[in-house]
Amino acid sequence: MSIRGITFDFWDTIVRDDTDEPKRAAAGLPTKAQARVSTFVEEVLAHHPSIGEAAAKAALEHANATFRHNWKVEHHTPCVAERLAVGFDHLGIDRTSGFDGLVDAWEMMEVDISPDLVPGIEGCLKRLQGRYKIGIISDAIVTPGTGLRQILRNYGLFQYFDHFVFSDEAGAAKPAALVFDVATAGLGVAANELAHVGDRPANDIAGPNAYGSHSVLYTGVIDRRASGDPVASIHVEHMDDLPDAIEGFVQ
Question: Would you say 134 and 165 are in contact if contact means Cβ atoms under 8 Å apart?
Fold first, then answer.
């Protein structure tokens, strides 16, 4: 059966992760990691100074470790508010009056100063539009689906997509079958009519392969391949090559 739908990962597939860091540095801002720690610690200590900086930082690391377990082992990504609440619970304190502002600061960081697009992605989407249903299946690690949509709007790419599956909204993360259920239903294609494009073999190749879909490994930003990785249906190094590679693929 021919391919009728194509889904893309977001990070290092549509945008190049952390290319916003030089922009932050040029503006005199701390790194995202530093800003996340400082905003959390400042909010805690503003209301509970006796807790101390070291304990506040340890609570955040506990929250982040819990999140990594949720993501990597359980394949779901709690939203930022849920993640930070774990840190507050670890300290034994209630959510502060500035908690919502803290969440917003984390969620908007990559929207206000966005990473760069992957080379060739806009031209690729232009060529694919109208020939295939196009979607995104992406894990939302800090920036939620609402923010990722806004980044696409800011770059003028939102119009190319027919459906979005973000892990904070779907309740599951790749490689869980649920995200592919949501994608195929939303795009109106069968599992074997879908090709998923991404950079992480464990998520973007293993997931669609197990689901009965096609997989496209994109290594134009970072090559994550290692011995023993699942084998992709297609491999491309530049988005300029993707439309022809999809067109020429015969299952």
Answer: no
pTM: 0.93
**Per-residue model confidence as pLDDT tens digits over 148-187:** 999 999 999 999 999 999 999 999 999 999 999 999 999 9
Q: Which residue in the block uniquely carries the two structure tokens 């689906």? A: 145
Q: Which amino acid is at 205?
A: I
Q: Label residues 225-239 b or e (16+ Cβ within 10 Å = b).
A: eeeeebebbbbbeeb
Nearest 5°: the CA angle 226, 196, 194 is: 140
The DSSP line for 173-240 is: -TT-HHHHHHHHHHHT--GGGEEEEES-IIIIIHHHHHHT-EEEEE-SS-----TTPPPPSEEESSGG
DSSP code for 155: T
Token pair recorded at residue 72 = 């990597």
Q: Among all chains, which residue has been given the structure tokens 């790749």?
A: 174
Q: Which two tokens stand for residue 165?
A: 């599956």
Q: What is the pLDDT of residues 52-107, one digit of tens each?
A: 999 999 999 999 999 999 999 999 999 999 999 999 999 999 999 999 999 999 99
In the numeric block, which tokens belong to residue 20? 């916003």
Q: What is the per-residue pLDDT for 1?
A: 56
CB-based burial label for 27 (10 Å; 0-12, 13-18, 19+): exposed
CB 165, CB 179: distance < 8 Å: yes
DSSP-derived letter for residue 11 is B
